[in-house]
């Protein structure tokens, strides 16, 4: 049975793209150039935006620098949904300041990248990732990976 690839949040990243083409997607105000991620599709929230321009989809920087990081070593408590029968796998969270936008975006580190592999200021790149797989669906997302691969 073929699995359906489904993004965890539609419109936040390119879908089905090869790794070299994968990008996070935000929106940019055509009047003041403010960039939003997660995307803003209703109106520009910048109080200094005189024109209240339209919001256009914008591909965000492929690379950035580690702003902060931590590890998730325990199963989240209620009310978060977590299968108590499934084996818990620790993961690494990375806050990355994007190069061009100068905004911080949070995401999981690529599989195999631990806190021991990261340092504040280190250059990382966004790559496609898998959040979960169930009966017929592969839930896709983004991951952060040190430039040059996991160390």
TrEMBL record:
InterPro entries: ChsH2_Znr, NA-bd_OB-fold, Thioester_dehydratase-like. Residues 20-55 form the ChsH2 rubredoxin-like zinc ribbon domain. PANTHER family: BLR3430 PROTEIN. This is Benzoylsuccinyl-CoA thiolase. The lineage of its organism: Bacteria, Bacillati, Actinomycetota, Actinomycetes, Kitasatosporales.
